[in-house]
Design goal:
- The chain has one helix and six strands, in the order ββββαββ.
- The chain is mainly beta.
- It has one domain: Nucleic acid-binding proteins (OB fold (Dihydrolipoamide Acetyltransferase, E2P)).
- The N and C termini lie far apart (32 Å).
């Protein structure tokens, strides 16, 4: 099992759906930068954490997360294809909630010691972000 920790911004608003048994499934893409390189990761959150993500995250929101890598193999047009996603285990909201005003936030944001908001430094400006 491969566990990944990262920080980045959402590329679009999260998509919330429910499985046949009623479990919330929230999917979103995160752009993680390492120097001049960018990686887009598909993150999937299940259950209560998925509902919280769908409610409070939005395009451009800054997060830190820990997730388990999962690769799925499938057949398409006779060729084997692979799809990699990251199953969310822990998340820290580093931006204000979608549902808060500029003066206060109703969310108590837990900070993971590895990703404390004060320690996170953007090496780019908001106008550099393509979304």
């Amino acid at each position: 099992m491969l566990i990944t920790s990262g920080a980045g911004r959402l590329g679009k608003d999260p998509e919330l759906s429910y499985s046949k048994n009623g479990t919330a499934v929230c999917k979103f893409s995160v752009c993680c930068r390492a120097g001049a390189n960018s990686e887009w990761l598909t993150v999937v959150a299940f259950g209560k954490i998925g509902e919280v993500c769908a409610k409070h995250l939005y395009k451009g929101a800054l997060i830190a997360f820990t997730a388990r890598q999962e690769t799925t193999k499938y057949q398409k047009d006779g060729h084997t294809q692979y799809y990699t996603s990251f199953i969310l285990k822990d998340i820290t909201f580093l931006s204000k909630s979608r549902n808060s005003d500029s003066s206060s936030s109703d969310i108590k944001q837990d900070t993971h010691p590895q990703f404390a908001k004060d320690d996170y430094k953007d090496d780019y400006k908001d106008e550099d972000i393509p979304f």
